[in-house]
Amino acid sequence: MIERSAAGAYNTHGQPNILTMQGLLGACKNVSQSDAQFVWASEEFLLEQQVAAWSEMPLWLPEEAAPHLKGFMFISPRKAIAEGLTFRPLTETISDTLSWYQTHHANEPLKAGLKSDKERSLLAKLRC
Hints:
- It is globular and about 60 Å long.
- The relative contact order is 0.17.
- It is mainly alpha-helical.
- The N and C termini lie far apart (54 Å).
- It is built from five helices and no strands.
- It has one domain.
């Protein structure tokens, strides 16, 4: 793009309509060789339990609680694809990100996600 002197805004996220949260988490589990078990909770449950969108539950933006953000995750990369954007395998990105994290930040507390005690409490409520 630089060599062609291309200018303008380009959205460069993954391929549209390809990946689900379940698919992403499954790929993360496989690449990391984790024994994690996924438990799905409804948006209603998460709101009732006062789970903070985006920070305690990364990538979650409840439509009901944040109507001003409706469509936030639905931008199109078509312009970038038309200019030659290519995609590498998701598993490669996950592996590289995990390696980077383990090398540079493994001993630091996470800045996002549920704290262990709150996660255990939520899981107990979901199992009742």
